[in-house]
Amino acid sequence: MASAPQTGTLVSDFTLPGGVLTGDRFERRDYALSLQRGRPLVLAFYPGDDTSVCTKQLCAYSSGLEQFQDQDAEVWGISPQDVDSHERFARKYDLRMPLLADTDRRVARAFGVAVPGIGLRRAVFLVGADGTLRWKHVALLGATFQSLDTLARQLADRAAT
Hints:
Elements: E1 15-22, E2 25-32, E3 41-45, H1 52-63, H2 65-69, E4 74-79, H3 83-93, E5 99-101, H4 106-110, E6 114-115, E7 119-120, E8 123-127, E9 133-138, H5 148-159
Parallel strand pairs: 3-4, 4-5
Antiparallel strand pairs: 1-2, 1-5, 3-8, 6-7, 8-9
């Protein structure tokens, strides 16, 4: 397993296909980390669409998007499923954040969260507006997730530094 980026270091750029549910349309496009510069970004790696814990996690983040938007931050969900799967998942649960498809787990490996035979670890990375890693949490088992309140607090604390 690759080593995850360290806090305070510049996060390597990546581009992944994905989409976001806007109104009743699922808008597909490529998402590039470098194009997000200037705004904080929450990268939420999750093992799978439409699974119990992942569904609870992404529903919590989606229903609390205003807490992220209040801090000018965006949230991207990243998992190994393809964009078609993400569209079905977003529509089923009315998820309103971009869901990115890391089908070859290249980005998960770069962040140190890919696990052979298992898939990937549930993890959250907060990337500052300048592209540096501000905070991270990588779960050992992935049966729980970082709460919306925890992420909002971490964003606020890191914005002050």
